[in-house]
Amino acid sequence: MWRGANVVAINDRPPVTLLPLLDRALLGAAERPALDADTPQGHTEHFTFGDLEVRSNRWAVVLHNRGIRRGSRLAFLMTNRVEIVDLWLACMKLGAIAVPINVLYQAREIAHIVSDAEPVAVVTTLERAPDVAADVVTWDVDDLARDAHALTTTFARPAVVRDTICDADTPLALVYTSGTTGASKGAILVHGNFASNALVLNASWGMHAEDRLLCTLPLFHVHGLANALHCWLLSGCHMKLAARFEASRAVDWFTTYRPTVFFGVPTMYVRLLDIDEATARTIGSHARLFVCGSAPLPAHVLESFRDRFGHVILERYGMTETLMNVSNPYVGERRAGTVGLPLALTCVRIVDESGRDVPDGTSGELLVRGPNVCAGYWNRPEATARAFVDGWFRTGDIGVRAADGYITLEGRRSELIISGGFNIYPREIEEVLLSQPGIHEAAVVGVPDASRGEVPVAYLVCDPTLDLIALETCLRTQLASFKIPSTITRVDALPRTALGKVQKHLLPSPT
Ligand code: MCA
Ligand code: AMP
């Protein structure tokens, strides 16, 4: 039975530690070209695995000299650059906990993460440092890089690294993800989560040392951080790290770098469909695998991409709290509209409201367990307790399993909006709107958008004199750009139930 194959022991984390897995590349393939990374100045730098090993040893010493110890939190706020790899590997080597922050966040959103995670410092650029609260220490990434460069530490691992012992349960990251309350919670991801995720993905997707992986995903979310970074380091393949995805640069990246593998969110694939047919075929001829996740991939995008690039995109499903859970097969049918089958080591159940397993073909909430599932939420024992039932993590995603095991996601229990792969909780935007003078009631919902999947729109009961242009300017100082409602509609009243609950499905079409 296919289901039996996915059952693991109930206490889930096998003693797999992360760094020794990556040592095959970092130590064993030191001479091998490893990384081309965009610099903030717009150049590309080239690194071997040995370079990355030496750089991260030096970063470990520099961070240790500045007080970073096992269990210390160290936040980072920057677009993709090699120094994130340095910082990440140094945290791994020191047993420290990295806290990625979305670069699109404004001061208000950053303040929440920093006050919750209490990092020793936020590593950022001089331009972004003012967005971090004045009472929080910031370290300029270029200063740290200069300090590291000035060290003579070489390939031999320094004592601070040799003396650090991490196991599968050692925390490595707090990744903030929005809860249903609107305030984001830090998922505690441990070494074993990253190790099992990378082992399973590389085995499932056939990642190997000759691959060339193009990473345009931000390293502040787990799609880039857990999947791209670790599939690369574990396989010992080559990676090109772009500062960020830019549709206008895509043809150049794909035709010059010639990646064999690309990981993206649906919006990136929608943008790639603008590439002309002949170029798309050439790009497809160099590639072996296109993976998509973080939001639903519309079936028509999969089909248009297959026709244009000659590849069936492999869609998979994950969460910040669980890393990857379910994937279409590399060999076998990649079924449009489905997320495929549970990954090896991950068990998936689909249950009804009372927690009973539903038969195939019936919708229910997906519960998962396995070594990929996080250790809980930072500082939030009640939220952690609520998230697990008998050791199973409640995803909040609603799905259905076909008789042959393929899972289709149908929606979510919460009001989560996913725009361009970034998560948005309506409640957070509503709270910011309600803090503005002249706004009496606010409701935010997601509406379909051809390229970003969904976008938020707002409905306001407000004073007739409210200046919507000034409101948008004000929202832009408090919310990341992807959370700004694409339309704001004035209404006389919000539709409510007799008990006063807003009936969002009865709101009029946005104007
Ligand atoms: C977007 N912007 C950025 C970045 N991405 N700015 C800096 N760094 C970035 N990485 C800003 C732009 O400056 C612009 O701001 C606005 O966002 C829209 O950008 P644009 O390029 O016009 O948008 P697009 O063509 O629609 O593409 C957006 C995108 C982006 C590149 C698809 O949304 C993106 O990188 N998404 C990936 C999200 C992700 O990694 N999600 C994984 C979460 P302005 O409006 O101010 O001009 S992890 C997850 O969900 C689970 C675990 C899973 O299963 O993976
Ligand atoms: P995050 O909180 O950023 O980790 O987002 C996780 C959520 O993204 C999941 O709970 C799903 O709702 C959604 N998600 C991830 N991958 C897919 C996918 N392939 N199809 C539909 N939704 C997805």
Can you walk me through this structure?
The protein has helices spanning 19-26, 49-65, 82-94, 107-117, 141-150, 159-162, 191-205, 222-235, 247-257, 266-272, 277-286, 299-309, 381-387, 426-434, 468-478, and strands spanning 33-38, 44-48, 73-77, 97-100, 121-124, 138-140, 171-178, 184-190, 212-215, 238-241, 261-264, 289-292, 314-319, 323-327, 341-342, 347-351, 364-369, 388-389, 392-401, 407-412, 417-419, 422-424, 439-449, 453-462, 488-490. The protein is α/β, with parallel strands linked by helices and 511 residues long. A hairpin with a 2-residue loop joins strand 21 and strand 22. It is globular and about 70 Å long. Residues 1-10 have low confidence and may be disordered. Residues 79, 103-104, 217-218, 221-224, 244-245, 247, 265, 267-268, 271, 293-294, 318-320, 420-422, 451-452, 481-482 line the site of methylmalonyl-coenzyme A (MCA).
Ends apart, CA distance between termini: 52 Å
Mean pLDDT: 94
Q: Output the CATH homologous superfamily of the domain at 1-15 and 191-413.
A: ANL, N-terminal domain
Assign the CATH class of the domain at 1-15 and 191-413: Alpha Beta
- Beta content: 25-35%
CATH topology of the domain at 1-15 and 191-413: Rossmann fold
Radius of gyration: 23 Å
Strand order of the largest sheet: 2-1-10-9-11-12-13-14-15
- What summary fits the major beta sheet? 9 strands, mixed
Helix content: 25-40%
**Total DSSP E strands:** 25
The distinct ligands, each listed once, are: methylmalonyl-coenzyme A, adenosine monophosphate
The number of helical elements comes to 15
Which word captures the global form?
globular
Structural class: alpha/beta
Low-confidence stretches: 1-10
At CATH's second level, what is the architecture of the domain at 1-15 and 191-413?
Answer: 3-Layer(aba) Sandwich
